[in-house]
Specification:
Layout: E1 2-5, E2 10-19, E3 22-32, E4 39-48, H1 53-69
Antiparallel strand pairs: 1-2, 2-3, 3-4
Length: 83
């Protein structure tokens, strides 16, 4: 499981889950419950078959190029942190 902090109360979680006996990649927004430190999943997210990972990864790489070309991020900012 990999977590990306979105804000003090929200976390984006990337993980492999099993749903109805099938493995899926799940990318979902998780939030802290009422006054609770435990994270709970929201309906905001996507799940897809691992066989689609290559296509998804290429789409993210294309988006990265668009962000750099549009000047919305610096190429240096796109260096990946150790996970």
């Amino acid at each position: 499981m990999i977590e990306v902090t979105k804000s003090d109360t929200q976390t984006i979680r990337l993980q492999v889950v099993k749903y109805q006996g099938k493995d899926l990649i799940d990318i979902r927004l998780w939030v802290h419950g009422d006054g609770d430190s435990e994270l709970i999943p929201t309906r905001k997210g996507i799940s897809f078959k691992p066989s689609k990972w290559g296509e998804f990864k290429k789409a993210v790489e294309a988006l990265e190029e668009e962000l750099v070309t549009a000047g919305l991020v610096d190429k240096e900012d796109m260096e990946y942190a150790e996970v």
